[in-house]
Amino acid sequence: MDNFTFRVGMADARVAKCPSKLVTVGLGSCVGIVLYDKVSKISGLVHIMLPYSDQSKNNSNKLKFADTGITALIDMMLELGADRKYIISKIAGGAQMFATKANLDIMNIGARNVIATKEVLSSLNIPLVSEDTGGNYGRTIEFDCESGKLLIKTIGHGVKFI
């Protein structure tokens, strides 16, 4: 990785200005949420693991959850100079990685993460402009702050931009 590529771990977030790239690997049931100020090109990426912080006893890491992770990422972007009215979003992940005998919603963390992410973005009036979610396979994503394109790499399902 070069000096302008920043890796985002699980339950982690980063913000960057052009000409940077933000990368996260290992999106199975987790969701990678990219927020992008299309005017200043200030970008952020959060790798969330669970839907809502109030459903967990251990909720000290705000970046672990869709509800608190997205709001924390917005705050980080605003500190860097982003303008909230220009922020859009793209998401990827939310897969059902393991088959279960009973089709219980509680076991489908991926779908619950995607639903929570969309609910939070909607409640914050942040447009979701594209997504690559669901399925039963993992993803690695790379966001280019200059172009605004999100590269999605998968094993067995190819590579694409959204």
Automatic annotation (TrEMBL):
GO biological process terms on file: chemotaxis
SUPFAM superfamilies membership: CNF1/YfiH-like putative cysteine hydrolases (SSF64438)
Enzyme class name: hydrolase
InterPro entries reported for this sequence: CheD-like_sf, Chemorcpt_Glu_NH3ase_CheD, Cytotoxic_necrot_fac-like_cat
Keyword tags: Chemotaxis, Hydrolase
Keyword GTP-binding tagged: no
Reactions it catalyzes: L-glutaminyl-[protein] + H2O = L-glutamyl-[protein] + NH4(+)
PANTHER family given in the database record: CHEMORECEPTOR GLUTAMINE DEAMIDASE CHED-RELATED
Protein family membership: Belongs to the CheD family.
Function (record text): Probably deamidates glutamine residues to glutamate on methyl-accepting chemotaxis receptors (MCPs), playing an important role in chemotaxis.
Record's protein name: Probable chemoreceptor glutamine deamidase CheD
